[in-house]
Amino acid sequence: MARLSSRGVRLHKKGLELLQPEPRVVKIAKDYFHIHTYGGFTPFFAGLLKKKLMATRCANRACKEKRLFLPPRPHCPDCLLPMKWVAAPLEGTIYTHTTILYPGAPFKLTTPCPLISVELPGVCTRMMSYLKRGTPYIGMKVRAVFNTAKPTHSILDLAFEPVEPA
Prior knowledge:
Blueprint: E1 17-20, E2 25-27, H1 42-49, E3 54-58, E4 83-87, E5 91-100, E6 113-119, E7 127-130, E8 141-146, E9 158-162
Antiparallel strand pairs: 1-2, 3-4, 5-6, 5-8, 6-7, 8-9
């Protein structure tokens, strides 16, 4: 068991800055960071830097589900064995969509932001992302685009844009 020093518990930082007394509004200065591991999802995020959508498929021959999972799953939801990583199609169709007008504080994209659910051929799940340009509609053909110039190393390195008619 850890012992407290004779000085007891102390604050390391000064308190909040009062911006407005009524209703009370305070400014919270944060200077910490969070370390996070992608663990079994590392191949997906590494694929984004290579302009690939990496999905998973069950490698167990006894499993009936042979379609791709995207978002990926490191382990099969049916037999719980490790999944095999494979490249997924980069073009699909908008299944549904919504537009974010008033996001919460940690939202990292500008608003309005069209969030889309994309149906990809051969994939049994739907991928959530955002439409980088254009106005979404159900059935719109879209193509994955990747932020490789200044990657965030997060899901924000993936977006979709409309497929131009040929």
